[in-house]
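Data availability (excerpt). All sequences and predicted token strings are deposited with the supplementary files. A representative entry, Ribosomal RNA small subunit methyltransferase A, is shown inline so that the format can be inspected without opening the archive.
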Amino acid sequence: MDINRPKKKFGQNFLQSDGILKKIISESKVTEDDHVIEIGPGRGALTKYLVHAAKSLTAFEIDTTLMSYLKPLEEAHDNFNVVYQDILTVDLDDYIQKHIGSKVKVIANIPYYITSPIIFKLLESKMVSEATLLIQKEVADRIVANEKTGDYGSLSIMINYQAEVKKLIQVKRTAFYPVPNVDSTVIQIIKHNQFQDLIQDEALFVKLVKAAFTQKRKTLINNLVELSGLSKEDLLNKLKTIDSKYDHFTRAESLSIEDFIRLANGWKV
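Structure token line:
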């Protein structure tokens, strides 16, 4: 068995286009004053550019068989080190505070199958200021979607109420080895606190958003009735006290982030 072959269990699709790699560095606007974390450096395709662009670079890699590719880069660059650990098991803020001592930018080509867990982990971190991530195009479309569109859902709301997200680069599947079944998009996530002071109970807000999109073909009333513990008519009356626009036909995809905040804030009243 060739241990250097891309491993399906780790979702490894290595980006091979130097043009795209250089464009990611350019679009991320990383500078020599920035401390950067890379997730899943693989064979170091993006890493070899990041080490020259950033003040320091820390890479988290789950696959220790890639050490033969990454160790020469570590030896050649004093500002680069690799931590062989699953990023999802790392206490990120603790690590950054102890070993870097400054807020960081994250720049990475992340595995499709753990895209959402990684993004939410980065959003939860107080030490990550922004992230430039290469992800599956379909997921990127869902993240940046606006209300009243087909791609809009709980993922759109949960990310955009915490950050500004924009698409930077479209990447064809043929730029990877092995070639995946889908195209990709590079997105940039820059955190904000635009809604932080408006939400009274964040846990309730999250619960309502997730429940509202449980089944997209169902109306808001049908999706929220179980959570409310009320009859459909009583729930509708409750929603009307929050905003008169609610009716039997209202669907979750028609509601903005601000609508869900008002819904959460008025839910217990």
